[in-house]
Amino acid sequence: MTARYPFVWHLPAVSPEQDASRHAPVLGRMLELIRRGQESGDLDATLSPGWLLTASLALGRAAEEEVKAGRMTTEEATHAMHHSFLRLLGAADPPRG
To answer: How far apart are CA 95 and CA 69, in angstroms?
Structure first.
């Protein structure tokens, strides 16, 4: 999504409650995807799905902050976030083609 809509990197900061509300429409879906990936063996099942979801959101926030601070470009942050998500979830990087 961030590669398709780079403006999301520059949304204004919000409170934790607003942040949770902003993400609410997709959180359930993300949690279910993590659970299904763990059940199928595609994702590491040694950590709880809730923890992996929380950590994934934190990675996204960290990437957003790096872009806002000018320490990373949107492209660099998108790549770092994608790679980090895969590592966090215990998934292999897709082959580069």
So the answer is: 31
Count CA atoms within 13 Å of residue 41 on its CB side. 0
Contact 5, 11 (CB under 8 A): no
Q: Determine, yes or no, domain membership for 9.
A: no
Residue 5 has pLDDT above 70, yes or no: no
User: Does residue 77 belong to any structural domain of this protein?
Assistant: yes
Total tally of structural domains belonging to the chain: 1
User: Residue 97 falls within a domain, yes or no?
Assistant: no
Instruction: State pTM to two decimals.
Output: 0.73
Residue from 79, 59, 61, 63 nearest 71 by CA: 63
How many angstroms separate the CA atoms of 27 and 65, rounded? 21
- What sign for the dihedral angle of Cα 77, 78, 79, 81? positive
Domain with 41 in it: 15-89
